[in-house]
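S1.2 Input.
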Amino acid sequence: MIDKTINSPLIEQMMQPGFYPHPVTEPIQMIQTHVSYVLLTGNYAYKVKKSVNFGFLDFSTLERRQHFCLEELRMNQPIAPEIYLEVLPITQTANQYILQGTGEPVEYALKMCQFPQETLFITMFEQGKLTTNHMEELGRIVAHFHAKAQTNDYIRSFGEVEKIREAFDQNYQQTEAYIGKSQTQQQYEETKQFTDTFFEQQQELLATRRENNWIRECHGDLHLRNICLWNDKIQLFDRIEFNEPFRFVDVMYDIAFAVMDLEARERKDLGNAFLNTYIEQTGDWEGLQVLPLYLSRQAYVRAKVTSFLLDDPAVPEAAKQEAATTAAAYYRLAWEYTKTNQGQIILMSGLSGSGKSTVARYLARHLGAIHLRSDAVRKHLAGIPLDQSGGNELYTPAMNQKTYDRLLQLGILLARKGFPVILDAKYDRQSFRADAIAQAQTHQLPLKILYCTAPTEVLRDRLSSRTGDVSDATADLLTHQQATTEPFTDIEQSLVTELDTTQDWSLVI
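S1.3 Output.
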């Protein structure tokens, strides 16, 4: 239904084939949100912004709508150039609206290439077609996007505690009315207490995020409805153009949105595949310390926006009941994200090619664990791209020690924050294992060792056929590794589970 209060004569004409200077697919379809109309004509889609003002978004004048059409084009064209084409004026002669006509514009439309709706990640998800491979590729794409995203003193200023918490405080103020309806008093108070405490106690962490340039011009609305797989590549679109505080954010704000969206749909494994790939690409493992804050925030915003439907007299009663159920689930999820779990450390051990990373990846998906690969940590320390082979200088005893030290430092840091952490390395030296065991005991963290094995000929075959992996290990290293690997001590044996990765090891772990 067309909203009759907002320029309906124009939209009615845009629903007619004769409005367009090109062939259309009939009937023309319209997607309507609370802020815009999108007309689907076949090859092209046209977005017209509504004349509305919600405070955080103001499209109330023609000049503002033109400005934000141009901003939307500017924001999104770099990340989706095949989708975002141009902004076109709409003029009027008598009662006839004309697209790209001469004369004084009365409205503006953003012209985009129309892609099939089945290419949307949300549609792929609903059809059971969204895979961990898709999410890993998305992790690489978002990492690349964030690496190129702009930052400067002005953008970094949005990472100051006072500015971050404005949106949080507003969320709580705007949802007090729903206590006892779609959220409980306990959930409200404990969720709010978590964020209040975080802002009070983690000011140094948030300052470090600013100083290390993790506050960038991000996407701001990165969820399954704003990602598509079109023309054989994953594309991000609908980046927020209308509100700087929603876009000038910690990169983990973007990551939390996508992870929360998947976890709310009960696919934590897909969220984990995205998260681990992203942080491995960026090396921003320390950023996981702020992830719970933003996970809770994104779920709470979804809850809030859904709650607003309960007060809309135009929404049918059945739809309100559904909205109340949905909002309650998001409020509960926001509350659950504030709870700290018991962290743990899992050490992978075994020769190159023994299947350590395959087992670790499987475990990470099932436990929601952070998967730390020594090969990635090593290359980040050396400052070389993950897809670039390292020279001998990457594998000196000094660099080995530095890599294992960093691996353990990150593991302990994240496990103390409540994450299950998998340290994926050979752990072929007693000293490396002893350090990890001692640190885990000091911090009262559970630790176990998964020792992966396979026959030598299998190891050689796996290493010889390996391509496109962060590891530089080759088959000719096996003999040296076998000769220098140090056996587990009696104390270590009690922590070890041996996995023959040529068998069904998933039944053992």
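S1.4 Remarks. Residues 317-336 form the longest helix (20 residues).
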